[in-house]
Amino acid sequence: MTDADSPRERMEDKKDQVYEDLLNMITEEFGISPTDVNPELDIREDLQFDSLQLYSFIINVEEAYDIRIADELIDQVHTMNDLVDMVYDIINK
User: Fold this and answer.
1) Which of 30, 47, 49, 92 could form a Cys-Cys staple with 53, CB 3.0–4.6 A?
2) Whole-prediction pTM value?
3) pLDDT digits (tens, 9 = 90+) for 56-70
4) Alpha-carbon torsion 78, 67, 54, 21, what sign?
């Protein structure tokens, strides 16, 4: 088994795919350049999302992944990494 075939590597590839999916969604929905988004980007502060924009985006994420994100979890989302981790954890339960 090569390193690329290790379970950890496959899991990271999936997390990377979630990031790419969310990046595409956020750039398309809000007209933001992909170069302006990074994993540590604070969605509320750096993108100046108000709660309505964040909830709208979360609804689109839920529809895209056919998942449900509890409201109390949404309040914990600050960075792109937070959102990626949350979506990744939900789809892998």
Assistant:
1) 49
2) 0.82
3) 999 999 999 999 999
4) positive
Phi-psi region of 32 (alpha: psi -120 to 50; beta: other; left: phi over 0): beta
Q: Which domain holds residue 36?
A: 3-91
- Indicate the number of domains in the chain: 1
- Max Cα-Cα span within the chain: 47
Q: Is 42 exposed, middle or buried (0-12, 13-18, 19+ CB in 10 A)?
A: middle
Could you say which DSSP state residue 4 is in?
A: G
CATH number for position 47: 1.10.1200.10
